[in-house]
Write a structure and sequence with these properties.
With 781 residues, the chain is an alpha+beta fold. Helix content is 46%, strand content 23%. It is built from 23 helices and 28 strands. The strands form seven sheets. A five-stranded mixed sheet has the order 10-9-11-8-12, with helices on both faces. It has a five-stranded antiparallel sheet with strand order 15-14-18-17-16. A hairpin with a 4-residue loop joins strand 2 and strand 3. The relative contact order is 0.04.
């Protein structure tokens, strides 16, 4: 048979050969797109890479192909869905396509190329491109999505087609264009694009495959075998013949290298001539400059030194006087003249006694002798100078002996001490004011200092208010080293020391509350608050106050005790209420149930005895039986609402029962996870956890708008943990509460059980409620 003979060289099994015999004609669908599939309308003949490939496969498989062409990919897929074609070449594998086709192994790799002007041979790095180098490409496309996700630096310009992208490149609207090598092969034959060249590969190739019907897996397997049987050389030639761009790459032209060599030769000759001329000019100029430079350097150095010296002295903020041995001024700079209040140049030849009346000749000669013979540096002291207007200038004076040539001078350095004296007086006044304030503050003012980072700290100041607070004077606390820590109650010293160390190590504010003892042994409650100041050199100070909060603390302790009593009372009332509910539930269930049972029995007896006598009476008896059944259900509901009987089977069973009721009432799935073996809880704790679950599910139903709810009961570290989570809209846990007391009631109920309630929620992210209650010790044991 012809099919078997044609496919005899393919490694097919007997079933595959039989399948080809039964399907000797296959319908091939293809999208008309050059260079893959193109139609010569004059000859009515198809050609292209995919046509040539399918003819090879048909020859090897021994089948006849019936070609059907389409104008777009959606038309091809619609033909596949309607059963008009059997296979299609040249498709890329996509998640959507896998639901429609069976794909073969790739037979061609179509690269995505970066095209630009012929400016050089270097490849373009996409990482180096920015907004100054826009790139044009067809969008929307998978290539555009890949570039946008991989290279965020690219400025991508969308184009409707590959031709428009190349035209934008020629019009200099963009710097580069991206298109696959198949389209580039088609367009490169046009003279319009002859000046373009491939400058890079973006590394996102398109893999072409043969797609076949999903209901013919035998065909997909045969196509894979046929593709593997094709020689690699034939596929390479197919790629070069149809898909290889026709641009001459930079450097492939012989004229290019000839022109380049000629240009380099001309440049080398010109460079050699310029270098020779520059060397001659440099040697001539160097000889001329060396002589002039040496002379100028000596002169400029002397003049510069003189100008700098004179400028620095004249513009110094420090007053400088050169004084002869007879106490007359030889030279005074501008700062000295301004300080002493004299006109420029009027200080020369004046004796020092004019602005220092207390300086007589004997004292001056004594200063001269001490400064001349001193080996310890300049003499310094503080004095005051008389100005011409009769005012006095506080000044700091430093004397230094100077020998200049054959002359000797005493250099007097003057600095205005007015601001320093004012600052010192202000500091003294501030210290006096601080001591006055500290002594009148109703507490103990202190300063804790650390000289440098890592050094131990010590109290540098303690206010006199300490005597009124603890009976010790400030000097006693500082001199004895007692400080504030010596006043702390022995049981609270560890906490005090820990809080102080944390503040010192973290360079943050210090806060501590605890008990202190006065000199008389009286117990008081103290609150320490100190603010930290950290300096650049590592020094740090903590300024704070120790307040007496004994009265407030007693009120706080009494209030805490009162709250504890109220919580115990509330727990007792809740227990009594639950017991009363249980009792009422039993009475309603037992007594009303018995009465209703008797009533139902009497009604049945009446029905047996008299229903046949009167049709109206039978109808009335049926109505009474329905009412009795409704009363039975009402009694069960009331008893269950007061105390569900399922609680007697354990909290785990009660949780599952309540979750199933919630699902039935709201149609919201409720996932329940409870342990198989759970220690028995006391009745109060079991009822409390059950009531919390009821309230939480009620809140989910009313407010959460959830799709699912998860309830998990677990045992963790001698604790029973109930966790309720939903995927609803959530809420802001820090916002002020509205008119509902559901959460407040749950929290109080859990506190009465000695447990804790934690709520985690954010708007739009659901809510998780976690209750932890300690297991009974005797049960754990």
């Amino acid at each position: 048979m012809p099919a078997l003979a044609a496919s005899s060289h393919l490694p097919l099994d007997e079933s595959q050969r039989q399948w080809l015999e039964n399907h000797a004609q296959l319908r091939v669908g293809a999208v008309l797109q050059a260079p893959y599939v193109q139609l010569d309308r004059r000859l009515q003949q198809l050609s292209g890479a995919n046509v040539e490939l399918m003819n090879w496969l048909a020859r090897d498989m021994g089948v006849e192909l019936v070609w059907r062409t389409y104008d777009s990919q959606p038309e091809l897929e619609q033909a596949m869905r309607s059963g008009q074609i059997d296979l299609a070449p040249g498709l890329g594998q996509t998640p959507a396509g896998l639901r429609l086709w069976l794909f073969s192994d790739p037979y061609l790799r179509v690269s995505q190329l970066l095209v630009g002007e012929r400016e050089g041979s270097a490849a373009v790095d996409l990482e180096q491109l920015d907004a100054t180098s826009p790139v044009a490409l067809r969008q929307p496309s998978a290539v555009a999505d890949y570039l946008r996700a991989t290279y965020s630096n690219l400025d991508l310009k969308p184009m409707a087609s590959e031709r428009q992208a190349l035209q934008a490149l020629l019009a200099e609207q963009v710097r580069y264009a991206v298109l696959d090598e198949a389209q580039l092969s088609r367009l490169s034959r046009e003279q319009e694009f002859a000046g373009l060249a491939v400058v890079g590969n973006i590394g996102f190739p398109q893999l072409l495959r043969v797609a076949s019907r999903r209901d013919w897996p035998e065909l997909a397997a045969i196509i894979d075998i046929a593709l593997r049987s094709l020689p690699a050389k034939d596929l390479d030639q197919l790629h070069e013949r149809w898909l290889q761009p026709k641009y001459p790459r930079l450097g492939e032209s012989a004229g290019f290298w000839q022109n380049l060599c000629l240009l380099l030769g001309v440049l080398l000759l010109a460079a050699a001539a310029i270098i020779a001329w520059l060397r001659r000019q440099r040697r001539r100029l160097e000889r001329q400059l060396l002589d002039a430079r040496h002379a100028l350097q000596l002169r400029e150095a002397a003049e510069e030194a003189l100008r700098l010296t004179q400028f620095s002295i004249d513009h110094s903020t420090l007053g400088i006087l050169w004084v002869n041995w007879d106490s007359h001024v030889r030279y005074a700079n501008r700062a000295a003249e301004q300080m002493l209040g004299y006109a420029p140049g009027s200080l020369a030849d004046r004796p020092l006694a004019d602005f220092q009346p207390e300086l007589n000749m004997d004292r001056w000669l004594d200063l001269w002798r001490r400064a001349r013979n001193s080996d310890e540096g300049p003499l310094s002291f503080e004095t005051r100078c008389l100005r011409p207007d009769g005012s006095w200038l506080p000044a700091d004076v430093s004397l230094s002996f100077l020998r200049f040539g054959s002359s000797e001078y005493l250099v007097v350095f003057l600095s205005d001490a007015t601001e320093r004296r004012r600052a010192r007086e202000a500091l003294e006044e501030s210290e006096a004011r601080l001591k006055g304030i500290a002594s009148n503050v109703p507490g103990l003012v202190f300063r804790l200092e650390r000289p440098k980072a890592g050094a131990p700290s010590a109290f540098a100041f303690i206010g006199e208010g300490s005597e009124g607070l603890v009976g010790y004077s400030a000097s006693e606390l500082l001199d004895t080293g007692r400080g504030i820590r010596g006043l702390v109650h022995p049981e609270d010293r560890d906490g005090y020391w820990e809080s102080q160390l944390q503040a010192l190590e973290a360079d943050r504010d210090w806060h501590w509350q605890g008990r202190i003892l006065t000199r008389g042994g009286e117990l008081r409650w103290a609150d320490i608050k100190a603010s930290a100041r950290i300096f650049d050199d590592g020094r740090a100070v903590w300024d704070g106050v120790v307040w007496d909060i004994t009265a407030n603390k007693q009120i706080e302790l009494e209030l805490g005790a009162s709250r504890a009593q109220l919580r115990e009372l509330s727990a007792h009332l809740e227990s009594v209420r639950e017991e009363e509910k249980a009792r009422i539930a039993r009475e309603v269930h037992d007594e009303l149930g018995q009465v209703l049972t008797v009533l139902k029995l009497e009604t049945s007896m009446c029905e047996l005895a008299y229903a046949g006598l009167d049709a109206g009476l039978k109808e009335r008896l049926d109505s009474m039986k329905r009412l009795i059944a409704q009363l039975f259900q009402l009694v069960r509901d009331v008893a269950t609402a007061l105390r569900p009987p399922i609680l007697d089977a354990g909290i785990a069973s009660a949780i599952e029962w309540q979750a199933r009721r919630f699902e039935a009432r709201t149609q919201i799935p409720c996932l329940v996870e409870v342990p198989e073996q759970l220690p028995q809880l006391s009745d109060a704790k079991a009822v409390g956890l059950f009531r919390v679950l009821q309230e939480a599910l009620t809140n989910v139903m009313r407010h959460a708008e959830a799709h699912t709810v998860a309830v998990r009961l677990s045992e963790e570290d001698d604790m029973i943990c109930l966790r309720i989570s939903d995927d609803g809209r959530g809420f802001d846990t820090g916002a002020k509460g509205g008119g509902s007391f559901g959460l407040v009631g749950m929290r109080e109920r859990v506190l009465m059980l000695g447990g804790s309630l934690q709520i985690e929620s954010q708007p739009g992210e659901g809510t998780t409620l976690c209750v932890r209650v300690a297991l009974d010790k005797e049960k754990v044991a």
